[in-house]
Specification:
About 40% of the residues are buried. The protein has helices at about 10-20, 25-40, 50-60, 75-85, 100-110, 125-130, 150-155, 185-195, and strands spanning about 65-70, 90-95, 115-120, 135-140, 160-170, 200-205, 215-219. By secondary structure, the chain is of the alpha/beta class. It has eight helices and seven strands; from the N terminus they run H-H-H-E-H-E-H-E-H-E-H-E-H-E-E.
């Protein structure tokens, strides 16, 4: 195996990357800061800073008008995607926590995109299974409990339009995907990665962005 050119991402190089990406706006920056200040023990569940501009870029690239997000936490990723939607676009955000998503609601209002986001507080599988069965979703972002990822995938793929995109976060899961004896969430991510790679309905690439990001396009 040839690894090719490898660049170690130091703190300085990471800052350089952020400085050469679209900057977070005041609302996004404020939401990130509030999340870390209010929920320091679980703030790592927030999508990485560089993923906000990337998700917005993918929304515009695909021309998405209907997005489904599985796992919203405090709303940074939903905010980033909603800001990139056209005025009549819609994002359905799935989460089970009123406490966490309250911070998102506040930020969405402040950014003027609350009318584009429909928050559904319920187990995500229930929300997905209640959606129309035919292909109608343009883009999905999955960043929720890792042991249910295959189930989310199997609900989303049939509902995704041809050419639609699924973006899945944490697919390297802190490197634990290398552990063949992994259990729990790490085992869930390992099984999900194998499932995705073998799915003939989709074209997928796993990228070493943040904690691993898989992009999957419906054939």
């Amino acid at each position: 195996m040839s690894k090719g050119n490898s660049t170690k991402i130091t703190d300085e190089l990471y800052r350089y990357m952020l400085d050469h990406n679209p900057p977070l706006d005041a609302v996004q920056r404020g939401l990130v800061a509030r999340t870390y200040a209010t929920f320091p023990e679980v703030a790592g569940m927030q999508s990485a800073e560089e993923q906000g501009p990337l998700l917005a870029f993918l929304v515009r690239l695909t021309g998405a008008r209907l997005i489904v997000e599985v796992g919203t936490f405090t709303g940074f990723s939903a905010l980033s995607m909603a800001q990139a939607l056209p005025a009549d676009g819609r994002l359905i955000a799935c989460d089970v926590s009123e406490e966490w998503t309250a911070y998102g609601r506040e930020a969405w209002e402040e950014a003027g995109v609350a009318d584009r986001i429909e928050l559904r507080i319920a187990p995500a599988l229930e929300t997905l299974r209640a959606m129309p069965a035919e292909p109608h979703i343009d883009m999905a972002y999955v960043d929720a409990d890792k042991e249910s990822q295959i189930s989310y995938w199997e609900e989303l793929v049939p509902r995704l339009r041809p050419g639609g995109l699924i973006v899945t976060d944490n697919t390297l899961y802190h490197g634990t995907v290398l552990d063949e004896s992994a259990t729990g969430s790490a085992a869930g991510v390992r099984a999900f990665n194998d499932h995705v790679a073998a799915d003939p309905r989709m074209d997928s690439v796993l990228l070493a962005i943040s904690d691993g990001l898989t992009l999957s396009r419906k054939r």
